[in-house]
Amino acid sequence: MHELSICSAIAQTAMDHAGGRAVRRVRLRVGHFRQVVPDTLTYCWDLQTRGGPLDGCALDVEHVPAVVVCRTCGASTGLTHPILVCGACQSREVDLVSGEEFLIESIDVAEEVS
Amino acid sequence: MGRFHRHADGTVHSHSHDHDHDHDDGHDHDHPHDHRDVGDHSGYATGVERVEVLEAILGENDRVAAANRAELAGHGVRTVNLMSSPGAGKTSLLRRTIPALAGRLRVGILEGDIATSIDADALTDLGAAVSLVNTADGFGGECHLDAVMVRSGLTRLPLADLDLLVIENVGNLVCPAEFDVGQDTRAMVYAITEGEEKPLKYPVMFRTADVVVVNKLDLLPHLDFDLDGFRANLAAVNPTATVIELSARTGDGLDRWLDWLTSVATG
């Protein structure tokens, strides 16, 4: 259960990039192999932001599939289980090219009043 | 031009809404206005601007971890982040390790626990400098150590007099694997009482470890434990891990662990 401290870090980064403007939405990219439960994350986000400067700010969590590329045959394989193996030739000489993302991609902020 | 449009080029321009279109948002606006655009204007009514961030969620932790790493390196200290589930034998292993390394390496321990000084007390007077971080004490009772907690613990250690620092993380097979604390290498203790399927159930922890210590091997005759099955499961998630099989209780197999720590400290 480290979702609360993760939400605290997300909130800080979002405010740092908002330049004092209200943040309406935060978009995350979370790889399949990260140990974060999206529902728990959004629940903790509500707890973290309630009553503060980010109250009501939405949190979008984009799930990024885990993919390995084989060094032997070059095939790409999507993985659901954490066993790093090529689906085409069964080689274990593979590189994980996605699935470990843990990124704040963008935020939506209110436009400045002119 | 519809209500939804994108400006992908980032240019600054003005335009008036002199064309016919309906607003379904209950108001009309025909004023000219500027867009300093970055991305997606999905609605004038809400006046929202998308700002690209592209920053690691734990970026601030990673920056502090890098500072810890630099400070430790500046003192010539090499650091092991030691992780495991509760009760796997981290503290028992360190009680064996500290006296065995006396005269070989100057060892410091940064002891992480949610509460109590039980483990820190168990490691006192063995010849190592010990610094305790309780995560319940100002760090929200976290189930892991992060870089800021380790930074606070480092201030209570005589870094200039150490060769090797072992950070005994909070007992937990999930969260500690996600947080860089500034270590040079990661080791985990796994006890054969935990069952051979654990690498598949907690793959991030087992994959993040450079060394997996397989502990409580003295219990092997008493358990229905499939050691080969465990080795295969570990190899499936982490084929490059160094595996050291030992018993912290009897001391059997300890030499390989001590040699590995020595190679870390002098490498």
Structure overview:
The complex is a heterodimer of chains A (114) and B (267). Chain A has helices at residues 3-18, 38-49; strands spanning 23-31, 58-64, 66-70, 76-79, 94-98, 102-110. Chain A is α+β, with helices and mostly antiparallel strands. Chain A has a domain at 3-65 and 98-109: 2-Layer Sandwich (hypothetical protein PF0899 fold). In chain A, the strands form 2 sheets. In chain A, strands 2-1-6 form a 3-stranded mixed sheet, with helices on one face. A 3-stranded antiparallel sheet of chain A has the order 4-3-5, with no helix packed on it. Chain A starts with a helix and ends with a strand. Chain B is α/β, with parallel strands linked by helices. Chain B has 2 domains: 1-54, no CATH class; 59-266, Rossmann fold. Chain B is built from 8 helices and 12 strands. Chain B has helices spanning 59-74, 90-101, 118-123, 147-154, 198-201, 203-208, 227-237, 254-266, and strands at 5-7, 12-15, 33-36, 39-41, 48-56, 78-84, 107-113, 129-134, 164-168, 185-191, 211-215, 242-245. In chain B, helix 1 (59-74) runs parallel beside helix 4 (147-154) and helix 2 crosses helix 8. The N and C termini of chain B lie far apart (65 Å).
Brief overview:
Chain A has about 110 residues and is of the alpha+beta class.
CATH architecture level-2 label of the largest domain in chain B: 3-Layer(aba) Sandwich
Rg of chain B (CA only): 27 Å
The name of the CATH topology of the domain at 3-65 and 98-109 in chain A is hypothetical protein PF0899 fold
| Assigned CATH class of the domain at 3-65 and 98-109 in chain A | Alpha Beta
Give the integer mean of the pLDDT values of chain B: 86
Silhouette of chain B: globular
